[in-house]
Write a structure and sequence with these properties.
The complex is a heterotrimer of chains A (248), B (272) and C (345). Chain A has 2 domains: 146 residues, Rossmann fold, CATH 3.40.50.700; 89 residues, no CATH class. The longest helix of chain A has 24 residues. By secondary structure, chain A is an alpha/beta fold. Helices cover 40% and strands 16% of the residues of chain A. Chain B is α/β, with parallel strands linked by helices. Chain B has a domain of 96 residues: Translation factors (Elongation Factor Tu (Ef-tu), domain 3, Beta Barrel), CATH 2.40.30.10. Chain B has a 7-stranded mixed sheet, sandwiched between helices. In chain B, strands 4-3-6-1-2-5 form a 6-stranded antiparallel sheet. A two-stranded antiparallel sheet of chain B has the order 13-14. Chain B is globular, with a radius of gyration of 18 Å. Chain C has one domain. Chain C contains 10 helices and 13 strands. In chain C, the strands form 3 sheets. An 8-stranded mixed sheet of chain C has the order 3-2-5-6-7-8-1-9. A 3-stranded antiparallel sheet of chain C has the order 4-12-11, with no helix packed on it. The interface between B and C is large, with 57 and 64 residues.
């Protein structure tokens, strides 16, 4: 089975995390797959050409004209496209940061720059693996399921679920703006466990309910405006859609 | 406690044959080694595919063969898709049989109406084979089987043998023009097979269809305690400890079901 | 009955631990009380009213390994074929489950009567035929030191829920605050043995549990019809965070899954994880059909499981009136509004 790992405009943190956190699994990965393209690890077999593969993992958001070209090439040459990380699945910080900015004069070397978009705005994405950066365990689980011909799964719970399982005090109760109820779980409630509020770096939960969340924080005396600006930071396009629907 | 007594530990079995039933459905014939399964029509087992997971399936073979089990599986989720890659000789784990079967001894001598839709017919095959073997103990047998497309029909090769022993009607809701049989939903073909009071009805299929048939049968004079439905839930443990198969009324589908009579549960409990 | 000073009571966990028990004590950290394994430096909280976890987390631990087995797969090829090698001849019994029953006795120190009753409920679920072998092994030889509550907080309702009384077998030592010390009433042989190791003053008479002072009083009406008809006030602000089911001491729903690793995929672990009816996959069947679609469905389902379903299936109510689901709900949803009737609330 052939696989490839691509990087669009991003910090390359997701692929770096995989290399550092997969440990012995990384070798196993190399045994199972013919990995034709993984620039961080070795020179691609066929140079910059996008090879024909079974599974393509793509990190990063679509920002430049090159990204646009690459993503459509990747889609055309891959049977299964996995968006790796929140940049690829939601647009992440770049999505919100590039809105309302005049980009027409900006250049990245000789490339044109556009408003950042997640992969799903340009091509059909088969599976989205959220996380900023992506979690190596979740990546392994998704990979094992793909090997079995089974569709990988996203956590169906919010950060709160794991937070409560760990027995943490609710940060909303102490008046901190925590996006836990909205955020997709699976991270093991890493931030709230050490008293730092959740910023929803993994994008919105499968059943995120913005209206309910805003009602809930109102009860704890947190202003809606404060919340909506915080929500926009990481969750990019997905929450932008939710916010738009909420205003209607 | 030894591993053999632990209800969570599966017993080993092997796949001895795989039959393609339809595009999406296969029947696995499983041979049990060093143990026998005493089961009744309507009971289910937990099938463990090593390294993939476990899922509940109704036994689809005749209870007279205690060394084998047939499981008819439609591609739907994790285990079911993986099961389609099984080949003869592969090892699987079996837990069970679990659950309350169809009341075959209580309904001796009665006229029966069996309605199966979609893959629901798999849960009824064990009963059908049992009835074929014990034909003289029962009254008039009517089997109504509904599917959507001709490609969805399962047990096609066996149907003609069944038809010798019972009145078999097959109807397709999305039949192609070449289809020569009945068209429409099972609810359109209840005339002639529903005899009213005294008849026993046994249903298995999609929850919505079961609900509408149940309502129709009650209207046509069948008594609630004479209508049996086989329910589907994703049981995880099979022994009433995980509470995943609770239904309204406080029943566990794994322990108290999967077969219920309609005087025990409300129509809402069937689901939608 | 004996009278002890606070220092002696706090010595009881180490006494129990010397007797061979795994001791679970309430500890306070970051403003919440949590049950945890006893260590000599753990700050035991004797004044807590509510704890975020419950004895359930130790009797039915999350992610418990049920058994492990070796599937004969090796990672030599791609795709599914690696998982299911062909086996010739008679069945070689490859699912050779390795199973070790949990061992050791467990002791709960300073749990409240509602916790003791939550163990009683779990017993009726897990030990009903066929018994759960893992739960049974953990529970056998259990010792409980029950600390009486004098007064509940705003969320407590163990008196309306009739769960302040202690059945036989669910209290080995009853502790009551009295003056600047504590009264200890051993109620079983094991309890007597543990209490005899403390420096104490013998007192005449005996104590029996008494109902704590409640800030609310109402009657619970919780048939299926009552729950269906009852108002679900504030449910629109529910974010499905599942805090109600995670913190509930009697929630026992679980999920069983296979866990395996990329490096050695032939070594498979079967684990039992906690599940919540507030989650989407709780009621999902093959093909993705969900029976509990809306949050109101799930809210009512939780109550139905606690009250009518439990009464029907196990003959005991699944709600011990601890109020955790109300206290820990970020949206402040109060189930007493749905099932409680009558006097002041």
């Amino acid at each position: 089975m052939k696989a490839a790992f691509y990087s669009l405009t991003s910090c390359e943190g997701c692929l770096t995390t995989l290399i550092t956190n997969l440990g012995p699994n990384l070798q196993a990965l190399w045994k199972i797959f013919d990995i034709d393209y993984f620039k961080l690890v070795r020179e691609p077999v066929g140079g910059e050409k996008v090879p024909r593969v079974d599974i393509a993992f793509v990190e990063g958001a679509v920002v430049t004209s090159l990204d646009k070209k690459r993503i459509s090439q990747i889609r055309a040459n891959s049977s299964f496209v996995v968006a790796l990380g929140t940049c690829a699945s939601c647009g992440n910080i770049a999505y919100t940061a590039s809105r309302g900015v005049d980009l027409s004069k900006r250049r990245l070397r000789d490339l044109e720059v556009f408003e950042a978009e997640p992969l799903s705005s340009h091509v059909n994405v088969d599976f989205e693996l959220s996380g900023c950066p992506v979690s190596a365990e979740e990546f392994t689980e998704a990979l094992l399921r793909l090997l079995n011909g089974i569709e990988p799964r996203q956590p169906d719970f919010s950060v709160c679920y794991e937070c409560k399982l760990k027995g943490n005090r609710c940060l909303l109760e102490v008046g901190k703006l925590c996006l836990g109820p909205l955020a997709m779980g699976g991270c093991g409630a890493a931030c709230p466990s050490v008293g730092a509020p959740c910023y929803s770096c993994r994008g919105p939960a499968v059943e995120a309910d913005l209206a309910a969340y805003l009602k809930t924080i109102e009860k704890h005396g947190i202003a809606e405006s404060k919340a909506t600006s915080a929500i926009r930071a990481f969750t990019g396009k997905k929450i932008a859609e939710l916010l738009k629907n909420g205003q209607k | 406690m030894k591993a053999e007594e632990n209800p969570y530990v599966p017993k080993s079995a092997t796949v001895v044959a795989v039959k393609n039933e339809s595009l999406e459905t296969k029947t696995l014939r499983i041979r049990l080694y060093n143990w026998k399964a005493e089961f009744q029509p309507g009971q289910f087992v937990q099938l463990l595919l090593p390294g993939v997971g476990e899922a509940p399936f109704c036994i689809a073979s005749s209870p007279s063969d205690q060394k084998h089990m047939d499981l008819t599986i439609i591609r739907r989720g994790l285990v079911t898709i993986a099961s389609h890659y099984m080949r003869p000789g592969d090892v699987v784990g079996i837990r069970g049989p679990f659950g309350r079967p169809f009341p075959v001894s209580r309904i001796v001598g009665k006229d029966l109406l069996i309605v199966g839709t979609g893959i629901g017919i798999a849960a009824l095959r064990s009963l059908i084979l049992f009835l074929v073997e014990h034909r003289e103990d029962y009254g008039e047998l009517n089997l109504l089987y509904g599917a959507r497309f001709p490609e969805d029909l399962v047990y096609r090769d066996e149907m003609k043998y069944w038809a010798e022993k019972m009145n078999l009607k097959v109807t397709l809701s999305k039949a192609s023009p070449e289809w020569g049989g009945l068209r429409g939903r099972v609810t359109d073909h209840l005339d002639g097979v529903v005899k009213g009071k005294g008849q026993v009805a046994i249903l298995c299929g999609s929850p919505l269809v079961m609900r509408s048939i149940s309502g129709e049968l009650l209207e046509r004079g069948l008594k609630a305690d004479q209508i049996f439905v086989s329910l589907e839930r994703h049981m995880k443990c099979g022994i009433g400890k995980c509470a995943r198969c609770l239904i309204p009324g406080g029943w566990h589908v794994c322990k108290d079901g999967p077969v219920f009579s309609l005087d025990e549960i409300s129509l809402e409990a069937i689901g939608d | 009955m004996i009278r002890v000073k606070v220092g002696q009571l706090l010595r009881l966990p180490s006494v129990l631990s010397e007797m061979g028990y795994r001791v679970i004590v309430p500890t306070e950290s970051n403003g919440v009380t949590k049950f945890a394994d006893f260590a000599t430096d753990s700050g035991i909280d004797l004044h807590y009213v509510r704890a975020i976890n419950a004895p359930r987390d130790f009797l039915l631990p999350d992610g418990e390994k049920l058994f492990s087995y070796r599937s004969t797969a090796t990672v030599t090829s791609y795709g599914l074929k690696i998982r299911f090698p062909t086996v010739e001849g008679p069945c070689p019994v490859t699912i050779n489950a390795e199973y070790t029953a949990p061992s050791g006795r467990i002791a709960f120190f300073a749990i409240h009567p509602c916790h003791a009753n939550s163990i009683r409920y779990l017993d009726s679920v897990m030990l009903s035929d066929p018994a759960d072998p893992y739960y049974r092994a953990r529970r056998d030889g259990m010792l409980t030191v029950v600390m009486e509550c004098e007064e509940g907080d705003d969320h407590c309702f163990c008196v309306p829920a009739e769960s302040w009384e202690l059945e036989e077998g669910y209290c080995d030592i009853l502790v009551r605050r009295s003056g600047d010390g504590f009264l200890l009433q051993p109620r079983s042989e094991a309890g007597k043995k543990a209490a005899s190791r403390l420096e104490a003053q013998e007192e005449l008479g005996s104590i029996k549990e008494r109902p704590p002072k409640m800030r609310t009083s109402f009657r619970i009406h919780a048939s299926e019809e009552d729950i269906d008809r009852g108002e679900a006030k504030g449910i629109d602000s529910c974010t499905l965070c599942a805090a109600c089911t995670v913190t509930c001491p009697t929630c026992y729903c679980s999920d069983i899954e296979d866990r395996f690793h990329l490096v050695d995929p032939s070594n498979v672990e079967r684990v039992r994880k906690r599940m919540s009816c507030q989650r989407r996959c709780y009621s999902m069947i093959a093909g993705g059909n969900i029976f509990l679609k809306t949050k109101e469905d799930r809210y009512r389902w939780r109550l139905k499981h606690k009250f009518p379903f439990s009464s029907k299936a196990f003959g005991i109510s699944g709600c011990v009136g601890c109020g955790n689901c109300i206290a820990f709900c970020p949206a402040g949803i109060d189930m007493r509004r749905t099932v409680g009737r009558g006097t002041n609330k």
